[in-house]
Amino acid sequence: MRSLDASPRALLTLPLAIRLGIAALSVALVLCLFMALPAPARTPALLAIPMAIVAWMFRKRGAFLCLVSMVLVLWVFYALKLHSLLLTSSLIATFIAGTLALVIVGILVSLLRDALDWADAARVETAHALEQQRRLHAAKDSLIMNINHELRTPLTAVSGYIDLLIQWNERLDNETRLKYLKNTLNSCDDLQVLIGNVLDAFQIDMGKEHFTRQRFSVLEEVQEVLTHSNPAWLSSHRVRLDISEKLTVQANTQYFRQVLRNLLSNAFKYAPAGSELLISAEPYEAVEAAGKAVAQVCIQVKDSGPGIPPDELSTLFGQFVRLERDVSGPVRGSGLGLYISKQMVESMGGRIWAESAGVPGQGSCFSFTLPAGISPALMQAIAEAESLP
Asked: Do 302 and 264 form a contact (C-beta atoms < 8 A)?
């Protein structure tokens, strides 16, 4: 079936100038042939050929112009033969019948062209729907595989420590018992974070990003997040803040805290114990598509960990994406934290990105921007005031 409509379809892909040339040539050749044939062999059916070609390439408008041009040429042809502009009644009847037949041919071919376009559009929509369905199935399978793997690890740890406590409780000293309980609690925390990330991912994918915006201090919210962070992480790293008390953003506090928690969680996991972790914020001027400058605040989390290979930075914020070294490494994760962070930051009107040379010890720097809570002029004044000695 595809081979049968290959040639008619090929006409539609030609440049406009070539299609116009084909249309004019077909009309001229058929008219010359029609007028050259003797009267008995001069059949109006020949005129249907250029009409069909023009109607196929240019639809009803082209068919109308083709019909008018052929009728005028033939009228002049017969008028010259009769030496009069007024044709006989039989010729007029023939003209009317032939014109009606050509009109029907033009309409039918134009409708056929419309039907072909509709079929092509339906085929494209069907292919798009099938591709979306394929992606949904792939995402579902990936979700099941990832969740199955990630849930199994903390659940196995919880089950193992509880089993040890039940079997050997009387033989364990208080220090060992407390250690097992802390490990069990940490595994429960990992499980809670994982479930929260999965629910957030589903909520974002379903488009339920309804939230309220408010103006708040960046420094206060960062300190709030650090206050409720894992004490073991805070005690094993040196956290330094470089944030002005005057910096504010217009965003959602819950989203802001979760994005910062995700970035800090990654930084604490990968940065070696005793290293410094820098959290900074500064005025940032973003440029919209229309070329208008928009005042924003850029928040950065910089660690001194192993860094990220540059060739993996572009895929870092994808769903269920994990670095190759982490797939079989000791650091657990669902591959959803950065994906969720990206969706949340963009829904608040900002953007998020990562920078790293992939060199161990130089670490990584994760940055995200949010709309500023004050005017651009005041933002500039703050920046200038802070730059003074």
From this structure: no
